[in-house]
Write a sequence for this structure.
């Protein structure tokens, strides 16, 4: 099996992320809007934790997975909003870097 | 500390967002559960039964359908609403008083847990439909709040604040 075909996450991890996203979609209809970004980052954290053993040898991807896997799960943008957005923008840039590297365009 | 232990307990209680793998002593769980009987309750109607959960698989599945459940608890107390009995008393669905009593029950459980040295974390962000299915609740019982129980880990995550590396 080539690296391209190797599973990125186990079925257990995929099910955990699926369950989180579906139930969060329901709970978010009754929660403060500020929880939206937090729930999405929590899902990303679950996925990154599951990806970690299979992140491969791409430095940018490995670094991104490690960073997202270690995010604190209880953060919201209401307090220190500017700092929150700046940190999220920086994280988004690292996502872009990992995507570019994955496509061989870094 | 003051000469008022009840007030000291109220002031020193904290939400525990990270719990260790140390099991909860069944006697402690029973004590915390029993405290719900003394929670303030409108008309003493007791329409908020509390369901204890200790089975590891059920706890894991409950966490899976609870996006707001940050800790991995060793036990949980699920405060439910008995919608059938509430209707028999003449309550309209969604009557706010019923949910006030969910809160008084939760506050009592949290304080009781603190009194025996257990950490606790209230959770309302979960799918009621999925949680009811996971818990195998009977018809008419709606899960409304989960009180996670366990021993606090040495290091707790930050409270709600800005995203930072």
């Amino acid at each position: 099996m080539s690296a391209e075909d190797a599973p990125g996450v186990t079925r257990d991890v995929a099910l955990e992320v699926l369950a989180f996203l579906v139930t969060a979609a329901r709970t978010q209809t009754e929660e403060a809007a500020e929880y939206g970004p937090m729930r999405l980052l929590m899902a990303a954290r679950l996925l990154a934790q599951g990806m970690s053993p299979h992140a491969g040898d791409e430095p940018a991807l490995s670094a991104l997975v490690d960073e997202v896997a270690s995010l604190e799960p209880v953060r919201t943008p209401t307090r220190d909003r500017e700092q929150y957005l700046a940190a999220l923008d920086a994280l988004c840039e690292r996502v872009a870097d990992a995507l570019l590297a994955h496509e061989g365009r870094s | 500390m003051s000469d008022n232990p009840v007030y000291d307990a109220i002031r020193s209680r904290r939400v525990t967002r990270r719990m260790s793998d140390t099991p909860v002593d069944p006697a402690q769980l029973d004590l915390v559960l029993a405290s719900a009987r003394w929670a303030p309750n409108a008309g003493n109607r007791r329409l908020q039964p509390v369901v204890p959960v200790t089975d590891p698989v059920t706890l894991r599945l409950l966490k899976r359908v609870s996006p707001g459940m940050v800790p991995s608890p060793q036990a949980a107390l699920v405060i439910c609403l008995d919608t059938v009995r509430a209707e028999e008393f003449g309550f309209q669905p969604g009557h706010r008083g019923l949910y006030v009593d969910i809160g008084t029950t939760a506050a009592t459980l949290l304080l009781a847990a603190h009194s025996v040295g257990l950490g606790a974390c209230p959770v309302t962000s979960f799918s009621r439909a999925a949680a009811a299915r996971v818990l195998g609740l009977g018809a008419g019982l709606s899960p409304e709040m989960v009180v996670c129980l366990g021993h606090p880990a040495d290091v707790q995550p930050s409270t709600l604040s800005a995203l930072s590396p």
